[in-house]
């Protein structure tokens, strides 16, 4: 039957055992916003959140930038049904972004804690679309074989970091540290030691 991203899943992983909780999320959001604004040289105006779940990033983003346009997509029918209209969440699987272009390229594209659960086929199908939809910085929080990550291990794909790095770089993304990747349009403006 496969993994179910239902009410029980979000209760278990986002309320009962959420590692670091809301304080850690707020720091992560602030860091991603700061990196994007540093490289864009202006405040961010739009965020596209792929694999957004219940839209946990929305509130801390709007606390920092109240006029921000937030748009989220997730494959969980439960999350979209429950929070979709209030949090601007829509139903789509990662692979749908091979064709789906729901907005102009976003200043900050978020895909947090998603990629390491996808098959290589679905990842390769949707990733080029994410790169096209990123006009600034992509926050691609992904865990690899080399990490000692804690959390949901059901369907976790235990791949080396090089698996992801090669794919991101082949599409023109350049690493800016702490899960942040510069879009192809911004990468050329970065200095040598800002990117790896």
Q: What can you see in these coordinates?
A:
- By secondary structure, this protein is α/β, with parallel strands linked by helices.
- It has a single domain, classed as Rossmann fold (3-Layer(aba) Sandwich).
- The chain is built from 7 helices and 7 strands; from the N terminus they run H-H-E-H-E-H-E-E-H-E-H-E-E-H.
- The chain has a 7-stranded mixed β-sheet.
- The mean pLDDT is 90.
Structure keywords:
SAM-dependent_MTases_sf; globular; Methyltransf_12; seven-stranded mixed β-sheet; methyltransferase activity; alpha/beta; Rossmann fold; single chain; 196 residues; transferase
Secondary-structure topology with pairs:
Layout: H1 7-16, H2 21-40, E1 46-50, H3 58-64, E2 69-74, H4 77-87, E3 89-91, E4 106-110, H5 120-132, E5 134-139, H6 161-170, E6 174-177, E7 180-182, H7 184-187
Parallel strand pairs: 1-2, 1-4, 2-3, 4-5
Antiparallel strand pairs: 5-7, 6-7
């Amino acid at each position: 039957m496969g993994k179910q991203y239902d009410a029980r899943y979000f209760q278990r992983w986002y309320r009962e055992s959420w590692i670091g909780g809301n304080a850690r999320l707020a720091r992560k959001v602030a860091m991603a916003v700061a990196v994007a604004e540093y490289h864009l040289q202006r405040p961010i105006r739009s965020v596209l959140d792929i694999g957004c779940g219940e839209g946990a990033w929305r509130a801390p983003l709007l606390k920092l930038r109240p006029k921000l346009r937030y748009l989220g997509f997730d494959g969980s029918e439960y999350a979209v049904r429950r929070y979709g209209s209030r949090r601007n969440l829509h139903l789509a699987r990662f692979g749908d972004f091979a064709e789906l272009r729901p907005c102009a390229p976003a200043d900050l594209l978020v895909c947090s804690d998603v990629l390491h659960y996808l098959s290589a086929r679905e990842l390769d199908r949707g990733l080029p679309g994410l790169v096209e939809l990123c006009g600034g910085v992509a926050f691609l929080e992904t865990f690899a074989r080399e990490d000692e990550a804690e959390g949901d291990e059901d369907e976790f794909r235990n791949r080396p970091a090089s698996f992801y790095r090669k794919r991101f770089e082949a599409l023109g993304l350049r690493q800016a540290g702490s899960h942040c990747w510069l879009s192809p349009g911004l990468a050329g403006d970065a200095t040598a030691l800002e990117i790896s």
